């Protein structure tokens, strides 16, 4: 009998998995983006407990999330999530952790070695976020050759979806530019269509265009609310409205879409009495839901809203099919358009109810479908206008007595078309100007250090070379200041990198205040080292500028945890009239040696390397 029990235990141990926990993620030197879903464990909270109690939970309490992002649908439950990351690069890495679902209400992020949790969520003002982004983005420090554990507590009335991604910072910004460009294209298409159809409505007075403008206005507003774009750009302080806007705009989509459908494809009481009454009832129900969304909390409204949206979209698809069967020409475009939009809406709804996984396709299906639908419906409206013009022309041929009236109507239509073309051309020119401005901004960002706002080293190297060539050609004096923050490594180790970043920003601001001429240049050369280029400036003037900068930094204090801190800098100055056009290395070496001499003399001082500067000026061309 004991032998039989032992065999049963052995068999069970072979059948059961050895571990239910997710493996730690590995961040290596080739990593740019890492999906954390396979490395996430979760735990359903049973009554509020402290973070220390969560960290002491046995491993058996946690469940591995699997290969897909966490998605538990709509519920009142509160979940804890954790993941581990091992940095095998051999150097410290400062990455971004992205939570790619912008409508979560309350998120507590417990980072390693942090005294307090980082509080996020759309119930907090947008500008409270550490990174101003429509998603929740958190800087995450990964020490070299160590494994860190991050905990998250999520409490939300929206769908419980927690997609986690770990980014290398430059890769994140590069990917975000692409995503922003796609969103810009989408909203640009919709804006052009809104303006175009609104103009046509004012020109022809056809109510279908007004309903259509209402529909294509509320649809992108709903998507902007759902994807966090509205919270970022339109109502960053409106935490209550950020949730309610989803309810209001989605119901208004059904209201305007239903009204447009009835009028555009002629679903009247005469030809389809039952469908007409059903659609009108649906429009009124959606209108009441939109009004209720201004008063009733989101958690009580979201499920009925999704239900009425699904019923409304299905109803409008049925209307289009019925009118197509009745050989209504407008129903052809309309049916295809609603197939695209309905498919996007169904994919989104199934994703929120966890029937479909959360990925790039399911998250953007509504945008893609609505964009295609908007374009096709605009084609349908244009086709309708075209058919009406043809009927008008035929009537003109049949009714000779109204020839003059028909000619005037044709001229009016031509003016409308010319004005519309002019408006479209103006919009194209406006978009071209916007693109040119955007290109200029991108060039400026490429030449700017993102932390301090000064120019970066690459921009300085080009400007320095050009300035030396100019000084050589016109026999002018060029001055270079090299600044270094005294004891910055000790300061950084003592107060941390975030305070060190604040220190670098303060020094950069002090430098900016004393580098004011258009031709002068201040740049961050690397780490805690800054450079100031002063073309056509003699040595005395350069030393005065350096002394003013040194004094400004010395007297500027900033607070860290109740303590007022002061910094000092050492500055090396080199002023020369170069005898060669390629003397940049010698000039920089001259200023750098002056900097080291200033440090050797006790720091917090300005030293000018006059002797070597004279030597550079006297050197003959090679």
TrEMBL record:
Extent of the signal sequence: 1-22
Alphabetical UniProt keywords: Coiled coil, Membrane, Signal, Transmembrane, Transmembrane helix
Highest taxon of the lineage: Bacteria
InterPro entries tied to this protein: 7TMR_DISM_rcpt_extracell_dom1, 7TMR_DISM_rcpt_extracell_dom2, Diguanylate_Cyclase, GGDEF_dom, Nucleotide_cyclase, Rev_trsase/Diguanyl_cyclase
Pfam families recorded: 7TMR-DISM_7TM (PF07695), 7TMR-DISMED2 (PF07696), GGDEF (PF00990)
Residue spans crossing the bilayer: 185-205, 212-234, 246-266, 278-296, 302-321, 333-353, 365-382
EC number: 2.7.7.65
Enzyme class name: transferase
Residue ranges of coiled coil: 421-448
Catalytic activity: 2 GTP = 3',3'-c-di-GMP + 2 diphosphate
The keyword Aminoacyl-tRNA synthetase is annotated on this UniProt entry: no
Ranges where the GGDEF domain occurs: 476-611
PANTHER family: DIGUANYLATE CYCLASE DGCM-RELATED, REGULATORY COMPONENTS OF SENSORY TRANSDUCTION SYSTEM
NCBIfam families: GGDEF (TIGR00254)
Protein name: diguanylate cyclase
Species for this entry: Marinobacter shengliensis
């Amino acid at each position: 009998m004991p032998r039989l029990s032992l065999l049963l235990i052995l068999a069970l141990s072979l059948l059961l998995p050895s571990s239910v926990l997710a493996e730690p993620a590995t961040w290596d030197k080739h990593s740019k983006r890492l999906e954390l879903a396979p490395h996430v464990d979760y735990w359903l909270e049973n009554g509020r407990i402290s973070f220390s109690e969560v960290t002491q939970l046995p491993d058996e309490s946690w469940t591995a999330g699997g290969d897909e992002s966490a998605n538990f649908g709509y519920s009142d439950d509160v979940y804890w999530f954790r993941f581990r990351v091992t940095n095998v690069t051999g150097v410290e890495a400062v990455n971004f952790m992205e939570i790619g679902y912008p409508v979560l209400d309350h998120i507590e992020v417990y980072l390693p070695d942090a005294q307090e949790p980082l509080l996020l969520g759309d119930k907090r003002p947008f500008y409270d976020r550490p990174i101003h982004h429509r998603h929740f983005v958190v800087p995450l420090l990964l020490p070299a050759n160590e494994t860190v554990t991050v905990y998250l507590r999520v409490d939300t009335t929206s769908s419980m979806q927690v997609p986690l991604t770990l980014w290398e910072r430059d890769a994140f910004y590069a990917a975000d530019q692409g995503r922003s460009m796609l969103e810009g294209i989408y909203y640009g298409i919709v804006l052009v269509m809104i303006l175009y159809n609104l103009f046509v409505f004012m020109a022809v007075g056809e109510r279908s265009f007004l309903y259509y403008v209402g529909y294509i206005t509320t649809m992108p507003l709903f998507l902007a609310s759902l994807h966090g774009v509205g919270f970022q750009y339109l109502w960053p302080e409106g935490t209550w409205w950020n949730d309610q806007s989803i309810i209001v705009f989605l119901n208004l989509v059904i209201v305007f879409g239903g009204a447009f459908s009835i009028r555009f494809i002629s679903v009247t009481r005469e030809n389809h009495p039952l469908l007409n009454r059903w659609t009108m009832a649906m429009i009124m129900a959606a209108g009441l839901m939109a009004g209720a969304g201004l008063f009733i909390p989101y958690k009580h409204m979201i499920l009925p809203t999704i239900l009425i949206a699904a019923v409304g979209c299905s109803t409008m698809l049925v209307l289009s099919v019925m009118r197509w069967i009745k050989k209504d020409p407008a129903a052809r475009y309309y049916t295809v358009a609603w197939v695209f939009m309905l498919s996007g809406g169904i994919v989104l709804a199934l994703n929120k109810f966890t029937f479909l996984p959360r990925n790039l396709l399911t998250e953007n299906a509504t945008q893609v479908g609505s964009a295609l639908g908007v374009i096709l419906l605009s084609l349908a409206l244009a086709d309708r206008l075209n058919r009406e013009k043809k009927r008008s022309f035929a009537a003109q041929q049949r009714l000779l007595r109204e020839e003059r009236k028909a000619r005037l109507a044709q001229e009016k239509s031509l003016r409308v078309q010319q004005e519309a073309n002019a408006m479209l051309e103006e919009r194209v020119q406006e978009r071209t100007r916007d693109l040119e401005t955007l290109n200029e901004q991108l060039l400026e960002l490429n030449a700017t250090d993102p932390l301090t706002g000064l120019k970066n080293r690459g921009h300085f190297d080009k400007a320095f070379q050009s300035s030396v060539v100019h000084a050589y050609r016109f026999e002018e004096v060029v001055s270079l200041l090299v600044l270094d923050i005294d004891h910055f490594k000790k300061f950084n180790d003592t107060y941390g990198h975030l305070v060190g970043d604040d220190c670098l920003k303060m020094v950069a601001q002090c430098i900016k205040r004393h580098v004011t001429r258009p031709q002068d240049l201040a740049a961050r050369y690397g780490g805690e080292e800054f450079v100031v280029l002063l073309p056509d400036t003699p040595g005395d003037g350069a030393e005065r500028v350096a002394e003013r900068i040194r004094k400004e930094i010395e007297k500027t204090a900033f607070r860290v945890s109740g303590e007022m801190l002061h910094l000092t800098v050492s500055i090396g100055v080199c002023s020369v009239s170069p005898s060669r056009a390629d003397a940049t290395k010698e000039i920089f070496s001259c200023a750098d040696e002056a900097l080291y001499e200033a440090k050797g003399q006790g720091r917090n001082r300005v030293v000018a390397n006059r002797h070597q500067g004279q030597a550079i000026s006297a050197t003959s061309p090679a």
